[in-house]
Amino acid sequence: MTEPSTDDSSTDVARAVDFDPGADMPDSGLSNPAAVGTPATNEEPATGYPIEHGEDGDSAAGHPPRHRRRRILQLAGAAVVAAAVIGGFWGWSVAAENRYEAAASSLQSQLTTETSASHAFDARLADVRSLAKRIHSVVDSPTFAAETVAEAGALQQSLTTMDALAAAPESTPPSAAEVAALATPPAGYRPPWQLTTEAEQLEGRARASQQQGSDLVTAAKNTADAETSLNTAESAFFSAAATEADQLIASDPLSNRSLQVALIRLTEQARNPSMSMSHDGAFLASMSDAESQVRASQATHQAELDDPAWAVRREIENYARSLSNGVALEFIWSPEVSGLGANWLSGTTQSFDTDGGYAIINLNYTVETAWYDGRDARALVAHEVGHSQVYRCAPLFNSPEIKGQQEVWATAWSISQGFDIPGSGIEAYGRPSDAQVAVAAQCR
């Protein structure tokens, strides 16, 4: 192959080619020199711009190289993954924070509920312990041991049930520090896994608190039910005891009315629910003692009634009762009354407006010894009975004529009974006016 001359115009074109595969090969006579570096068209070739090829044959003028696209895709994927990780972590943190706050709020509320249940249980426990102690003073007394009413057994059984509940220990409420700590969460950043762990702990504590509160509510209810049963049994027992006392009074009519009234007051107290706090062993003993006094009074008066030595006193008492218009009279006999004894007729009267009205008349022995010596002893007895009528005839006693004057009234009343004599009170207090006697005479 001959070397082209420097004047050959095709030389510049040939040099623009980076690689000519036929440059070192022998001329076969088939090549066309004009075709080397010279386009077949009439267009002028673009000289001086080498044709570049990529690694994989992609042209720089078309698509970027494949390794660059791969790097872009890798970076884009990494960014997406990073965004997803960051977003997931942020979401986890928010969810953990929300869960922690909800758990703390729920536990705080639950601890408050448990505290209320604890206080309610302890208050109920204190009540039943006090009740059990009071009822024990009844059941453990000698007086109760002698009781035969069926209600006594029921009371003892209810007390046994209560004793088991009253022996329970007091509850331990949540500490104020624990409740207060929940209102102020710890300062500083806490990763979501720590928040999740702490939230789980708070939730577990809330469940335990809820169970404890439920147990306390159940225990308080059981204790309250037992308390109600014991109160009912106690009320039934004392009502039965009061009924027995009523029957005793009815069967002992000769007993002193003042003793009967004292027992009546106790039976009213026994039946009064608002006074149940006083229903203890001492109260039961006082009822028993009052009953004993009524029985003793009945026995004494029955013995006197059967003894001829007391016949005059029985006659005087019966006479007084015949004038009393149903007012119960009780008598006391004394050697002296108001300092007056032998050779003096003397008496006093205490009148009461309760329990149907009753009076206690105190007479000295002279009234008995002088009963058959004239009418003055009877006049004095009538005077004392007149005192017993002041509540029954209160409008007359307080009339303009009498003006509530005790001795004027009693003397006028005795005179109205036909005793216009010194023993009616005339000797001691003077004679009332006829108008005053007329007013007293209306009390019949």
Automatic annotation (TrEMBL):
This is Uncharacterized protein. The chain crosses the membrane at residues 72-92. Residues 1-10 have a biased composition (Acidic residues). Keywords: Membrane, Transmembrane, Transmembrane helix. Residues 1-67 are annotated as: Disordered. The keyword Transmembrane applies. It comes from the Bacteria. It comes from Subtercola frigoramans.
